[in-house]
Structure formats: structure tokens, C-alpha cells
Amino acid sequence: MIHFQVPKAFSRNIDTLSEEEQARLSHSKVCIVGLGGLGGTVAEILVRTGIGNLILVDRDRFDPSNMNRQLVCTEETIGNLKVDETSRRLKTINPDLNLNPHIDFLTADNASEILGEADVVVDCLDSLEARFDLEQAARNGDKPLVSAAVSGISGYVTTILPGDSGLQEILNQLGEETSDSEPVSCLAAIVFLIASLETNEVIKLLLDRNGLLRNRLLLVDLSDNIFEEFPLTDLSDG
Amino acid sequence: MKTTIHLKLYAGLQKYASASDDNHPIETGDSVREVLNRLGVPPDKPLLVFINGNRSKATSLLQGEELVKVFPPMRGG
Which of A110, A205, A238, B7 has the smallest number of Cβ neighbours within 10 A? Predict the structure, then answer.
């Protein structure tokens, strides 16, 4: 067995993670689709936890309206590509990080190539339609997907393995009102919290740990400090 | 027949009622949607509904005494 020398940057992970687990994370590859509020924070936490390989996907540039909740959005980065600025920041945390940036939106046509060899896919999108496309792409690639969404001071997280009914169970009664055209109001507090929970699911998947939010939706509502799980079951005969 | 349900609203729906109402009045046979419409929730608003812990539909009919939890789908990232 090859000994893994834990870099000092990650030495304070040890005990909570074993050295073998830290080594496994350094060889893991995670694809983050969407680099807004959730995606930028998920990327930051993954890199600080020691994930060694990231695929980053987004075509947008930072806009002043991103400032309230997007970690990488600053006065210096406004107008610049989110993929470029997020990559730059992550490299300052871990110069050995292996990055595979895609200045693009994930589509059915490019999904297979972009998801590539990812061990886990993270849904950090802000559009319902794109979420379904991503879920299908992850399913086609036989990859686990961690999905989250936020609104106001609420949000939810779930983990979908290939073969699970997944987002359809959460979003199968959508009407016209859920148009993707309206911007969603949300505060940084819920964005960072949900991103943390989403990242924790990724780490559990990578390390084969128990307690996944599989077929369960964890709802967080900060108005009353509510953390509540809801089972996701098939409604087809309901 | 008049009866009550335990109604819990989350994620922005609290503006239509108190977040938790352990004795929310209904008529036997009301649907979840009818109950929420009376509170002012827009009739076309997509909803995620759980009755006694089970994923249900907004059209599900209530008999009374159920624990009904409702929140809207979210898409922000």
C-alpha cells in the first residue's frame, strides 16, 4: 500500500477523516454544474476539504446582482467569467488542484463529454428545465447527483442515485407559475447553508459513508430554524 | 362536517397563515388546495404536499385530524 502524506493544508481534517479517506478525496473528481451562489460555495468547500479534481461548468459572467450571495463575486470579478474567477480563487487555496473548466451550459448534446469521469455530479443550477436535463445526463452516465435549490430563506437538498425517481418526485406538480424567467430572491445565509449541506452529501458519496439523503428531501426554513426531512415516494398511483 | 387538521406551512407560505396551526378548520372532504385557496394561496401555485408524512397531491381530500405539511418547489441556485 502506498503511503499518502497528508498535505499540511488538510492536516486539520485528520481524525474527522482518516488518512485513507483524505487520500481518496484527493483522487476524487466532482463536477459542479452552475457556479452561482450554491456552486461557488460548494466548490470552495470541496477544495478546502481536499477534493483533488473538479469539473466546473457555467457560461455566465459575474453581475452586480450576484454580490449578495455569490462567494466569488466581488468588485474585482464583476464582468468576468464565473468559471475563470472561480478557477483562479480555487487555485489560490490548492495550487495542486486539477481543474477542468467548461465555459458552457450543460446540454443533452455536451453532457456526456462534460460529465466525463466525474465520480459525483452536483446540481447548483437556477433553472428547473436545466435541472431535469442535468438529472437525465447524470442518469445516462450512471453517476450520483446531489441536488439543491434555494428561495428566500429556505432551501432543500437531496441525493439521487441512478435509477431513483429523483427530481420528478419533487417537481412533478409544477405549473406555469414556476417560470424560469423571474429572478429568485434569496439571502446569503440560506445559500451558504444549503451549499454546505450539499457538499456534505458529496463527501459522503465519495467516502461511501452512511446517512445519504437518498429518497429523502431535507427542507431547511430559516424563518423558524426548521430542518425537516420528507420522504420522496412515487405518486404515480396517488 | 366541520373538523380540523394540523397544518404546517414552510418556505414563504407562512405569509398566508401562521406557520403552524394545530386546529385549522376545514370541511370533511375539502382538498388541500381548497384549504389553501381560502388562505389566499394563489390557485395555480405549485405545491409540495405531505399528508401524515406521505407525499400527496394538492387535490388530495382531507377527512380531518391529518397532519398536512406544504411548501413550494424552489429553483434558485
Answer: A238
